[in-house]
Amino acid sequence: MKASLPYKYITSVKNGKQYVVFDFKDKAGKRKRKWVSTGLPEKCTKKALNEAVEKIVAEFAEKWNNNQVVLSVNRKNDSDTESNENIIVNKELNSFFSDWLTAIKANSARTTFQCYKRNAVRFVEYMGIHYPDVTLADLNHTHIQAYLNYKMDEGVKGSTVKQYYLALHSAFAYAVKMEMLTQHPMDKMVVPRAERHEAVFYNVDELNELFEVFKGNKLELIVHIAAYYGLRRCEILGLKWDSIDFKKGTITIERKVVCDYDENGQSKLFVETRLKTHSTRRTLPLIPHIREMLLEKKDMDKRYKKLCGKEYNTEFEGFVCCDPYGKLISPNTVTHDFHQVIKKNGLKMLRFHDLRHSCASLLLANDIPMKAIQEWLGHATFNITANLYSHLEYHAKVTSAETIARVLSGKKEDAPTDTKETVPEEAPKKSNSRKKKKDTSADKSQPAAV
Question: What's this model's pTM, rounded to 2 decimal places?
Answer without folding.
Answer: 0.62
